[in-house]
Amino acid sequence: MSKYDVAVIGSGPGGYVAAIRCAQLGMKTAIIEKYDVLGGTCLNVGCIPSKALLDSSHHYEDAMKHFEEHGIEISGDIKLNLKKMIERKASVVDQTTKGIAFLMDKNKIDVFTGMGAFKDATHIEITNGEKTETIEAKNTIIATGSKPASLPFIKLDKDRIITSTEALNMKEVPKHLIVIGGGVIGLELGQVYHRLGAEVSVVEYMDRIIPTMDSAQSKELMKVMKKQGVKFFVSHKVSAVSKKGKEVTVTATDKNDKEVTFKGDYCLVSVGRKPYTEGLKAENAGVKITERGMIDVNDHLQTNIKNIYAIGDVVRGAMLAHKASEEGVLVAEIIAGQKPHIDYNLIPGVVYTWPEVASVGKTEEQLKDAKIEYKSGQFPMRALGRSRASGDTDGFVKILSDKKTDEVLGVHMVGARVADLIAEAVTAMEFRASAEDIARMSHAHPTYAEAVKEAALAATDDRALHI
């Protein structure tokens, strides 16, 4: 029987990063993956393939609608080859997962393919078809991720009534795609197929889209996507979804308790994700799992069994790949006897629509609820020379700072490349910078980043220079 210092169950970003860090720290490490490819949800049916389709569809939309204004004239019809677009997405996924396999080999991490299940607190059975083997692990890290959630009355046929997984492998562009859920996944995939020619209707239970982000971002993104042609129906409670032939019917109740019916050829159910812990047999190790399938952990991400840890989507907090990766590093270093930390307030959130949306820290609503006095500075992207040069003028940067100390408490952005730009805000807040600190920093011209400086100036005595 093979013996390991650490066994990691699950090879998503949290899992493979945890395994790499354990190996770097000199621990004999194994990683167990249910499927034949490494990378988990993010690399195979989540972050990476969705971004590949977002990028390809953006190119197509630019060619169809925006090239001419840049002086680029195309003779003949522009044709969409969805099959080739999906094939490109698959090749990006393949390259990325092979990269993870290379990293496992480079760091001398043993990879086991099969379903990992606890035999007891220190032994894991790995089943692959009819073959079963057992390994011994001094410590185990559970990193099994999540899967798409649904509503109890919806029957997912994975043909016309689909999840994000099926939406990444469509054989045709929908005529009318009904998206249930105005969160990150629904908006991103909705925008992909709208760019490719689908009518898209987003049905959201809450009174605004991306409800966990700052309300100004919700308002701006919905305004821009409406201008692009996406239809939104907020404060709508879905009560039924049915299929007849190639037609899908979604029934909902609006805020006035009036029944509303939507008819389309595809329905994307995008109401969040739920922890994936089925088949772990956690009870054999004594690990407690909640009724919702989530694993309880302490501040060190340790379960109620001291040698078993859990990270990523199976524990509390935002279901984000980069959050899982940080937790993977933290657990590896704790097992090695170090004293790492994570500031969960500084884990950024991003929506990869166009314009992009990015946030870190407290929203304005959270500061109000906590009765924290704050200052707010906001700067529109359209006032930037760089935005006008590229034609990406939608959006803004908003900085919230403490009214007394001027420490930055939250930064919220909508605009081109803000998914990358948010790192500046995270860095500033990690070092507890004030809005004045950011305002005094030189930002290259012309760049989108100048909006951060201008928003910081606006937050400090309303000193923005270009509005």
TrEMBL record:
Its EC number(s): 1.8.1.4
Keywords (A to Z) from UniProt: Cytoplasm, Disulfide bond, FAD, Flavoprotein, NAD, Oxidoreductase, Redox-active center
Catalyses which reaction(s): N(6)-[(R)-dihydrolipoyl]-L-lysyl-[protein] + NAD(+) = N(6)-[(R)-lipoyl]-L-lysyl-[protein] + NADH + H(+)
InterPro entries, per the entry: Class-I_Pyr_Nuc-Dis_Oxidored (IPR050151), FAD/NAD-bd_sf (IPR036188), FAD/NAD-binding_dom (IPR023753), FAD/NAD-linked_Rdtase_dimer_sf (IPR016156), Lipoamide_DH (IPR006258), Pyr_nuc-diS_OxRdtase (IPR001100), Pyr_nucl-diS_OxRdtase_dimer (IPR004099), Pyr_OxRdtase_I_AS (IPR012999)
Enzyme class: oxidoreductase
Subcellular location per the Swiss-Prot or TrEMBL entry: Cytoplasm
Protein name: Dihydrolipoyl dehydrogenase
Domain FAD/NAD(P)-binding: residue ranges: 4-328
Pyridine nucleotide-disulphide oxidoreductase dimerisation domain location: 347-456
Family named by the database record: Belongs to the class-I pyridine nucleotide-disulfide oxidoreductase family.
UniProt remark on cofactor binding: Binds 1 FAD per subunit.
Organism: Aequorivita vladivostokensis
GO molecular function, one term: dihydrolipoyl dehydrogenase (NADH) activity
Other information: The active site is a redox-active disulfide bond.
Cofactors (names): FAD
